Amino acid sequence: MAASILVNRVGQEELERSAFMALPKHAILVDRSARVCASNAMAARLARGVTGCSAVPDQWGLSDVFDISPEAAIKEIIVAASGGILLFPLRDPAPGSPSRMRFRVSPVRNGGAAPRHFVLVSERGDALGKTFRDLNAELEHVDAEARRERAYRRSLQRANEALNASNAELKSFAYAVSHDLKSPVQTVAMLLSEMSECNEGDLGDDVTELVDMSRETLSRMSVLIEDLLRYTQLIGTYIRKAPCDLNAIVDEVIADLRAEVKGAGATVRRGDLPVVLGDAVMLRVLFQNLVSNAVKFRCPDRPPEIMVESGARDPDGRARIEVRDNGIGIAPEYRDRIFELFNRLHRHEDIPGSGLGLTMCRRIVHNLKGGLEVGENPGGGSVFTVSLRMPEHE
Amino acid sequence: MAALSFPDTEGKISRDRDQFLRELLRELADVLEDRVGLEEAKGFLARVGARIGDKMDAEYRGLLDVDRMDLEQVAGALVDLKARINGGFEIEEISGDRIVLVNSACPFGDYVHGRQALCMMTSSVFGRLAANNLDYARIEKTETIARGDSRCRIVVHLTEGEIGREYFG
């Protein structure tokens, strides 16, 4: 009888009073067949609870209480005797109770020979369980964050799609309106020309003047519609950007505006300009508008002097190009308004234009992820500063 | 199928299956040590070592056609095992009380530095193999490459004592 080892060593009465029996934990003495040789009160209560017997059977094994075969149990016990923790699954655990029990194992020493008995003492704490619970909580938190992020991205994507659809609709509406306006304006202008030619000399001075005024108005309207068409084409447009040499672009602009420049007695100079990231056609429209404005909004008492030059980079590392003039300048309170759609500071009779040029310029730099600002030229006139990304930003 | 445009890695990346598996084991030990602590990580790896030790024990017994190996056979098995996995152990001493093994290379290579939990894997294979055949073993690691020594010196005690981890047959 295995229990006799302990009994022989300490005596029955001493065993009853021993720390083994008094332990406030489950304590079990088992042999190499996983049979229980002795158990304390807590272990006996566990056995009674699982087996359903009112008294602890004389001969019971670990397999009566735990869901494990005697062979597997003893194998686990031998490995855990080296210092590890033993986990045994309980048979029919009560709902809400732990499904496994943890034990520390000590061999009953046998002077270096294979031990014939082992003492199993239950462990209350579940240190690793806590670690894994913490890990799981951490994972759940990360998962929840990822779910929130995904939901946010989805809603953002939906909003973007809706916005793009709305932009596209708006653009095609604006295009259709301006395109459909162009044709009747041209027809009326043509009819007025016909009327003048057919009735040359018969219309009288007053009527002839009215017809001329009408034709002039229609001409302005035609320019306005053309600009409007160009502007609608810029809204929401994705521009495939490439390195563009601004020296070449600005030289072409100056050449295109030669007649205008000459007519105004203006001088346009260019400094050394950088290569920027953009679209050559867009950049040409941009600088054409800025240089043309500088010629148009000139001071009556001095010939226009315009300088296109490179400035220091902006805080985002973008290239800064300045278009300076000695023209009439723009009062600070109007500097924001000049970029608004159809906003004009002067009467058309004084300085012609559609009121769309600077709106278009701002739209172009916006499309190129750049910036456009206006300030005062220290020597009089205005400075338009364009910020544009450089090839290294790609 | 379209050909992948991927640079030739030949001679630039040395990772082979062996290295990959060692790295994997090292990372596993890292995560365990960092998350559950050295002692608990050792417990996990000891169990892995014990399982492998049991398998190898059965293999050697089958090869030698014996129910249990004797002292010299156990020592021979330990050396053979380590030679196979580039551990290169040699027997420094063998007696009825103990087997002393030394090596100058670790099976885990450079990945073992600073990770003593990995030593537990090897020592538990030793312990299990010895205890299964000789009833009892106590593994004492007097020197280890993992903690910065130039070699490993493993003493497999066959008698009970205070120092080292005990294995029971």
Write up what this structure looks like.
The complex is a heterodimer of chains A (394) and B (169). Chain A is α+β, with helices and mostly antiparallel strands and 394 residues long. Chain A has 3 domains: 3-124, PAS domain (Beta-Lactamase), CATH 3.30.450.20; 126-237; 239-393, Histidine kinase-like ATPase, C-terminal domain (Heat Shock Protein 90). Chain A is 49% helix and 18% strand. Chain A is built from 12 helices and 13 strands. Chain A has helices at residues 3-10, 12-17, 19-22, 41-51, 62-65, 70-80, 127-198, 204-234, 246-256, 258-264, 280-296, 357-367; strands spanning 27-31, 35-39, 60-61, 85-89, 100-107, 117-123, 242-245, 267-270, 275-278, 305-311, 319-324, 371-376, 382-388. A 6-stranded antiparallel beta sheet of chain A has the order 3-2-1-6-5-4. In chain A, strand 1 and strand 2 form a beta hairpin. Chain A is rod-shaped, with a radius of gyration of 46 Å. Mean pLDDT of chain A is 82; it is low at 1-5. Chain B has 169 residues and is α+β, with helices and mostly antiparallel strands. Chain B is built from 4 helices and 5 strands. A 5-stranded antiparallel beta sheet of chain B has the order 1-2-4-3-5, covered by helices on one side. In chain B, helix 3 packs antiparallel against helix 4. The model of chain B has no long low-confidence stretch (mean pLDDT 85). Chain A binds chain B through residues 78-79, 81-85, 107, 109, 111-115, 127-128, 131, 135, and chain B through 35-36, 40, 43, 46-47, 50, 124, 127-128, 131, 135-136, 158-160, 165-169.
Q: How many helix segments of chain A?
A: 12
What is the CATH architecture descriptor of the largest domain in chain A? 2-Layer Sandwich
Number of domains of chain A: 3
What kind of oligomer do you see? heterodimer
List unreliable stretches of 5+ residues of chain B.
Answer: none
Strand order of the largest sheet of chain A: 3-2-1-6-5-4
Order of helices and strands of chain B: HHHEEHEEE
- Total helices of chain B: the number is 4
Query: What number is the mean pLDDT of chain A?
Result: 82
What name is given to the CATH topology of the largest domain in chain A?
Heat Shock Protein 90
Low-confidence stretches of chain A: 1-5
The CATH class of chain B is identified as Alpha Beta
The amount of beta strand of chain A, in percent, is: 15-25%
Task: Give average pLDDT of chain B, whole number.
Answer: 85
Structural class of chain B: alpha+beta
Rg of chain B, alpha carbons: 18 Å
Strand order of the largest sheet of chain B: 1-2-4-3-5
Order of helices and strands of chain A: HHHEEHEHHEEEHHEHHEEHEEHEE
Under the CATH scheme, which architecture of chain B would be assigned? Answer: 2-Layer Sandwich
In the residues of chain B, how many domains can be counted? 1
